[in-house]
Amino acid sequence: RKEVEQDPGPFNVPEGATVAFNCTYSNSASQSFFWYRQDCRKEPKLLMSVYSSGNEDGRFTAQLNRASQYISLLIRDSKLSDSATYLCVVNLLLGGYNKLIFGAGTRLAVHP
Amino acid sequence: NAGVTQTPKFQVLKTGQSMTLQCAQDMNHEYMSWYRQDPGMGLRLIHYSVGAGITDQGEVPNGYNVSRSTTEDFPLRLLSAAPSQTSVYFCASSRQGGPTEAFFGQGTRLTVV
How many angstroms away from the CA of A82 is the closest CA of chain B? Predict the structure, then answer.
């Protein structure tokens, strides 16, 4: 079983739609959580951190459920520019050092 | 702001050739790592380093060597290239300690024929 699992998609949605991505992780020792965005043929970049209480950044809302080992990302009012792959990332503290584990990503395509 | 600089951006190798992918960061980050990204597989950790002189293996280390002689540089060496090493390689750096953002280089697209 992969340490971080995501639905690969693609999610094809019209502009203005609300779309939600889910992610599960297997290691209960995971310390912190992130969503990264990766545009086609580009490097991943941090979209937002995910906090236990849930957090929002404009049209983006991230939620964490530690008991279920589940992370979500909600995008409201989708824009064409949101088209990208969204990577779920967990940070493990192993041997005193942080190690980032990436999911395979969920692809989003927003169409006019 | 240079951030993480990775070279080359593209490379074609013949089976059996060796090469070094370069990675340098100017943010004084302790932690540096190399990933490979293949379709449907996500980013897989090859090797990582928590500081100068300290390296360790990640998930898929076979066929690759690393060294960390300075805080800034973390080169990845392919000893004898194989077609299975055709992939996109990313170098990343981050601070150690606590939740931390990873900054990535622009990637190297490597094809082994």
Answer: 19
